[in-house]
């Protein structure tokens, strides 16, 4: 579900529920929402009042989406602003089973701090590690946005048996970027995630938000989220690519058997030199 968001949290949630219903009516068994879908992308500026948007898990936000998963009989991947304790907040993906129960959660591990993406101000780095979430539709390797740039995260999910990689996302262009820079950024984003699909022999599902969201402080011109949510197969083949400007609810069929088929002809896991990868745990090799 590729959606735009406003400053009205309840309206955003209502539109997400409508989208879940639409996807379920089209036959979806798994529905994926974008990063921080309940709210505006509040990380454009550092503002302590924005912490009021967070909720505990379980709590009011999980109650709403639990009920939606149960009502429409889908496995649901959400992305919520978690209040864990005073001063400790996480960017947390919560996965609901078809009966509305919480199948598992993942706290975003890699936290960016860039102009208009001041996430380190809001989010404590995740502490749950890289573990797929078992559901009735398979083991889901759920990661969040900035995690999508890190091959280590994708690999660890795959090594733990993930059957697909899922990236709820909120990424776009800051207004001062040149068109050439915008093209480079999007091209890199698209390429690296397809690379994760190839390197791990897994489907990748990336769901981005869309539309322009202003910077309420007026410091920048806001962010134009580039949409273009996509699904790639285990050889990087593009199974679906959404548009750059419109909202979309799309159902895409994924053949999980292709992972087995592809890994037989491209046995990257077999040929990994695990005996010589110890330096990957170092910050840098001097």
Could you characterize what this model shows?
41% of the residues are buried. The protein is globular and about 50 Å long. The strands form three sheets. It has a six-stranded mixed sheet, with helices on one face. It is an alpha+beta fold and 286 residues long. The mean pLDDT is 97. The chain has five helices and 13 strands. It has helices spanning 9-25, 60-72, 151-159, 179-200, 257-265, and strands at residues 30-32, 75-85, 88-96, 102-107, 133-135, 138-142, 164-169, 172-174, 204-208, 210-213, 223-226, 230-232, 238-241. The chain has one domain (9-273): Nitrilase/N-carbamoyl-D-aminoacid amidohydrolase (4-Layer Sandwich), CATH 3.60.110.
Short description:
This protein has 286 residues and is of the alpha+beta class. Helices cover 24% and strands 23% of the residues.
User: Helical segment tally?
Assistant: 5
CATH class: Alpha Beta
How can the largest sheet be summarized? Answer: 6 strands, mixed
The rounded distance between the terminal residues' Cα atoms is: 44 Å
Number of strands: 13
CATH superfamily grouping = Carbon-nitrogen hydrolase
Quickly give the structural class. alpha+beta
Average pLDDT taken over every residue: 97
Order of helices and strands: HEHEEEEEHEEHEEEEEH
Architecture, CATH level 2?
A: 4-Layer Sandwich
What is the beta-strand fraction? 15-25%
Q: What is the count of structural domains?
A: 1
Using the alpha-carbon principal axes, give the shape: globular
Placed side by side, the strands forming the largest sheet appear as 5-6-7-9-12-13
CATH topology: Nitrilase/N-carbamoyl-D-aminoacid amidohydrolase
What is the CA-atom radius of gyration, in angstroms? 18 Å
Helix content: 10-25%
Uncertain segments of ≥5 residues (pLDDT<50)?
A: none
């Amino acid at each position: 579900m590729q959606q735009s968001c406003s400053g009205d949290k309840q309206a955003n949630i209502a539109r997400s529920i409508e989208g879940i219903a639409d996807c379920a009516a089209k036959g979806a068994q798994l529905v994926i929402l974008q990063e921080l879908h309940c709210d505006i992308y509040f990380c454009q500026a550092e503002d302590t009042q924005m912490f009021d948007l967070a909720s505990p898990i379980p709590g009011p936000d999980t109650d709403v989406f639990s009920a939606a998963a149960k009502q429409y009989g889908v496995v649901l991947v959400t992305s919520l602003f978690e209040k864990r304790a005073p001063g400790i907040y996480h960017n947390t993906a919560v996965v609901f089973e078809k009966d509305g129960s919480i199948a598992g959660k993942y706290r975003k591990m890699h936290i960016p701090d860039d102009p208009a993406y001041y996430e380190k101000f809001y989010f404590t780095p995740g502490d749950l590690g890289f573990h797929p979430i078992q559901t009735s539709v398979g083991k889901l390797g759920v990661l969040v946005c900035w995690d999508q740039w890190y091959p280590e995260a994708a690999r660890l999910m795959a090594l733990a048996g993930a059957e697909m990689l899922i990236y709820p996302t909120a990424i776009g262009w800051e207004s001062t970027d040149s068109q050439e820079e915008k093209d480079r950024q999007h091209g890199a984003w698209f390429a690296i995630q397809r690379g994760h699909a190839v390197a791990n022999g897994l489907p990748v599902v990336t769901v981005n938000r869309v539309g322009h969201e202003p910077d309420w402080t007026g410091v920048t011109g806001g962010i134009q989220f580039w949409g273009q949510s996509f699904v790639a197969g285990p050889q990087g083949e593009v199974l679906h690519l959404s548009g750059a400007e419109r909202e979309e609810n799309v159902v895409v069929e994924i053949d999980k058997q292709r992972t087995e088929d592809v890994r037989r002809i491209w046995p990257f896991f077999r040929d990994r030199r695990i005996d010589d990868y110890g330096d990957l745990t170092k910050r840098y090799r001097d």
